[in-house]
Amino acid sequence: MAMTDVLSAEDIKKAVGAFSAAESFNYKKFFEMVGLKKKSPEDVRKVFHILDKDRSGFIEEEELKFVLKGFTPDGRDLSDKETKALLAAGDKDGDGKIGADAADLKWQ
Length: 108
Known about the structure:
- With about 110 residues, the protein is mainly α.
- It is built from seven helices and two strands; from the N terminus they run H-H-H-E-H-H-H-E-H.
- It has helices spanning about 10-20, 25-35, 40-50, 60-65, 65-70, 80-90, 100-105; strands at about 60, 95-100.
- It has a two-stranded antiparallel ribbon with strand order 1-2.
């Protein structure tokens, strides 16, 4: 499954482009711009599984660094600071990874 099966290619392009500069990533704005916040829990889980590259059932810090590339190959890598901020926002139980719970993925 491709990300564009769930989200609009145009929205993805705009969102990734908006955060192309280093240290500019804002996960709340990004998820809103790609339309993820308006999606059903089922669609959010689909996005989660696309981003879970190793199919572990979790998105770990190593995978988060490449989260923008999960939306489009043209996306940049997140900095260590951006990656840690995103992990801190989504890691609800402090285990260093984000679970498949749809509420976790939305990082509200």
